[in-house]
Amino acid sequence: MSSAANYLADVLKSLSQPTRLKIIDFLRAGERCVCEIFPAIDEEQSNTSRHLTSMQTHGILSRRKEGVKIYYAVKHPEVFEIIDRAEEIVKLEIDFRSGVIKESERG
Amino acid sequence: MSSAANYLADVLKSLSQPTRLKIIDFLRAGERCVCEIFPAIDEEQSNTSRHLTSMQTHGILSRRKEGVKIYYAVKHPEVFEIIDRAEEIVKLEIDFRSGVIKESERG
DNA sequence: TTGCTATATGATTATATAATCATATTTGAA
DNA sequence: TTCAAATATGATTATATAATCATATAGCAA
Fold first, then answer.
1. How many domains does chain A have?
2. CB–CB of A13 and B16 under 8 A?
3. Which nucleotides of strand D lie under 7 Å from a protein CB?
4. pLDDT tens, per residue, chain A with 107 residues
């Protein structure tokens, strides 16, 4: 049935979790291996690996094997655009709410 | 601590669930009341109300009361841009995967 | 008031998710 | 071969989430 709609939700869900957002942010600088990623984001190796595998499965990350190391990278630049837009919303909301507080403080 | 990072995740999480995506898609046409939304997306009133409340809380939707009706609208155009980008990723991935299948079929 | 319509919310249940610990697997090097 | 490093995965647990049903609340109209 709604395989496309669910796929869309899966893609967005991949980008909506703090640990995964930390990974993606670290990968803004480019391809990195797991051994670089998990210390950088200060998460356990196994947890990091799960999130990486999950994001690769959902088409967010690419994966490349080189010897014993696995390199991951953000596969589509749209991923960064999505996060940048979401950050704009966060900023707008913070401004909006501080504005609302000022309004109400004014009485 | 990471209130900003968690807020970012919350915003994206608001956009990563099938029912909420149906709501947002319906609201592309503009502001609508709950009584219009839940039949359009074919979900229960109470479930729809919860998602609407949740998205309003996270700054995704605006809310306006008019008599007994409550009108919701998408608050930031960035929301649509995010979803459009995610849909691009879905399309790219579908193409990519069918390409991969063709590669392997070719042997 | 009474009653009707619109919306929200409490309680519950089922399911999904994230994190953790322990361990398996793979690969290159000694 | 044996070993160590890198990565993945099974089992478990705690928590979050979505949906549902029943009911509460708010506001308008008769």
1. 1
2. yes
3. 5-10, 17-23, 26-28
4. 446 778 999 999 999 999 999 999 999 999 999 999 999 999 999 999 999 999 999 999 999 999 999 999 999 999 999 999 999 999 999 998 888 766 555 53
